[in-house]
Amino acid sequence: MNRISKISAILVIALSSIHLTSCGSGTVALPKARQLGPAPSYSQRSAQIANEVKGDYYYARRYFVNKTRFWGYVREPGQQWTNSKLVIMNESRTTVPDRLPEKGPKGKRFAHDQNYEYIITGNYTGKKAYDPNTDLFLPEFRPTSFKLVNTEPGWIFSQNDYYDPKRVTLRIR
C-alpha cells in the first residue's frame, strides 16, 4: 500500500469515527409518526355516520399535539368528519377527560386519550380562541359531559392519516 493510500484509509477511518460518535452525542430521536390504525373503509365509515341518531350531542375526537391549545375535532351526528371543527375547549362547566398531570404513569397523564372518540354534550360559545403555537383562531366549545365511545377508532379524515405528536398532521382536506 503506498503512502497516499494509507493516508486516504486513515482519513476515511477518522471521518467515519467522528460521524459515528456525533450520532449519539446529545441528540434525541423524535418519535416516529404512526398510522392511526385499522378502521372501516370509506363506505363503511360513511354508512355508520349516516345512520347515527340525530340529537342534542356531538361526536368528538381527541387530537393532541405538543404545545398546542386546541383539544380536537367536533362534529354533529350524521355529519362526516370532513365537516368537523378543530376546537378549543372552554372548561367552565366541566373539565376534559384528560385533565391530568403532564407527567405520570401511562394512561394516567395529560393527552393519554389521543385519538379517542367521545360523545359530548355542550355548545359552541360563538367565540373564537387563539392558539398561539399554530397561529389559528378556533371555535370555542363549552362541554357539559363526555362519554367515551371508542379508544381505537382509526383514521379520521383519510386512511392515509398519520399522527405525529410534534406537529399538526391531521387537517381537513
Short description:
This protein has 173 residues and is of the alpha+beta class. It has 2 helices and 7 strands, in the order H-E-H-E-E-E-E-E-E.
Question: What report would you give on this structure?
Answer:
With 173 residues, this protein is of the alpha+beta class. It has one domain. It contains two helices and seven strands. A five-stranded mixed β-barrel has the order 2-3-4-6-5. A hairpin with a 4-residue loop joins β5 and β6.
How many domain units?
1
> Could you state the order of secondary-structure elements as H and E?
HEHEEEEEE
Which regions have little confidence, pLDDT < 50, spanning 5+ residues? 4-35
Structural class: alpha+beta
* Helix content range: 10-25%
- What number is the mean pLDDT? 78
Number of strands: 7
Q: Per DSSP, what share of the residues sits in E-state strands of 2 or more residues?
A: 25-35%
- What does the radius of gyration come to? 23 Å
- The coarse silhouette is globular
Distance between the termini: 62 Å
Individual helix count: 2
Q: Quick one: biggest sheet?
A: 5 strands, mixed, barrel
Order of the strands making up the biggest sheet? 2-3-4-6-5
